[in-house]
Structures are given as C-alpha cells and as structure tokens.
Amino acid sequence: MTEYIRVNGDELLEYMHLNFCEGALVEISYNRVFIPARIVLITYEPELVLTLQLQGELLNQCVDVVVSEIIDDIVELNYVYDGKEVVLELYD
C-alpha cells in the first residue's frame, strides 16, 4: 500500500532525517529531471547529502545529491523500503 504525504521543504528534510535508510529505493522528480536510484549512503553534516547509485538504463554511476541545493525544485519524491512505499509531494 502506498502512503501519500504532502510536505513543505522543512518537513521533507525532517522526514528524510527520521525515516530514510541506506539501501532504500528513491525516485526524485525535480525541475524536469527524474532520478531513480538506490540510497548508498546518507550523511548529515554539514547538511543532508544522499549518495545514490543511479538505476537508469544508460547511467548507473554513484552521485552525491545535496538536498538543500535542489529542495526548491523537488516536485515529488517516492521512497520504498522494506515493502513500504511513501510518496512525498511538495508544496510551497
């Protein structure tokens, strides 16, 4: 079952701090970009950074995403871990 949650930017960061786990699948939709990936590493200092293993057909490398740099452009974020799917929809 999929859970839908509407959040603002601050609430998204808080949700990520409390709930995101390494090994989970994440799909980030932001500013005309769609990123399907697996979370390899989460670091919190000095700010939230997700190291992602891309799951695309052409691109499969690891990338670091500094969440604060893209948070204003995120439209939706799907998070799947341990059989639970959460869709985080952002609003202003």
When the domains are counted, the total is: 1
Rounded radius of gyration (Å): 12 Å
Q: Helix content range of the residues, please? A: 10-25%
CATH class: Mainly Beta
- The number of helices is 2
Report on this model:
- The protein is of the alpha+beta class and 92 residues long.
- It starts with a strand and ends with a strand.
- 16% of the residues lie in helices and 53% in strands.
- The relative contact order is 0.30.
Which descriptors apply to this entry?
92 residues; alpha+beta; SH3 type barrels; 16% helix; 7 strands
Q: Strands, helices and their partners?
A:
Layout: E1 2-7, H1 9-19, E2 25-30, E3 33-43, E4 49-54, E5 62-66, H2 67-70, E6 74-81, E7 84-90
Gist of the model:
With 92 residues, the protein is α+β, with helices and mostly antiparallel strands. It contains two helices and seven strands; from the N terminus they run βαββββαββ.
